[in-house]
Amino acid sequence: QVQLVESGGGSVQPGGSLRLSCAASGFPFSRWSMTWVRQLPGKGVEWVSGINSDGTSTRYADSVKGRFAISRDNTKNTLYLQMNSLKSDDTAVYYCAKPRYSDTYNYDPAALWGQGTRVTVSS
Q1: Which of 26, 39, 40, 86 could be a cystine partner for 121, CB 3.0 to 4.6 Å?
Q2: 3-20 confidence digits (pLDDT tens)
Q3: For the chain, how big is the Rg over CA atoms in Å?
Q4: Are 20 and 83 in contact (CB under 8 A)?
Q5: pLDDT tens per residue, range 82-122
């Protein structure tokens, strides 16, 4: 079955950086677009970023554009999210998400999520 296991979250001061990872298994990862979404405290889900199957195309929410970078290593079945210049507004639980369709990397409400990794940005 599909498994998505996120790691790399933690606590960081504003302006700091973190790199999230998502180890994927149970589906043909190298042929599937992937996304990151986040659950903000007391708010809904926000789509953060998406990447196509071979990593040649990426998309970002306006709120993270220029600060976050999504990437993937298809030899390791792993998805990444490099987060720089972190702000308190980035505090959330971050989820790796497998869209329902392999060529979708915008927000997909039917996507499968991992268990999430918590990111806290605070001074």
Answers
A1: 86
A2: 999 999 999 999 999 999
A3: 13
A4: yes
A5: 999 999 999 999 999 999 998 999 999 989 999 999 999 99
What residue type is 22 in one-letter code?
C
With a CB cutoff of 8 Å and minimum separation 6, the contacts of 69 are 58, 81, 82, 84
Residues in the chain: 123
* Beta-bridge mates of residue 51: 34, 58
Residue 83: count other Cβ atoms within 10 Å of its Cβ.
26
Q: Rounded to whole angstroms, how far apart are CA atoms 13 and 121?
A: 5
- Please state, in angstroms and rounded to a whole number, the distance separating the CA atoms of residues 34 and 104: 8
Owner of token pair 């940005």:
121
Give the pair of three-digit tokens for residue 109: 């409400």
Per the CB < 8 A criterion, the answer to whether 34 and 105 are in contact is yes
Tokens for 16?
């700091």
User: Cα separation of 19 and 17, whole Å?
Assistant: 7
**Three-state DSSP class for residue 88:** helix
Q: What's at 59, amino acid-wise?
A: R
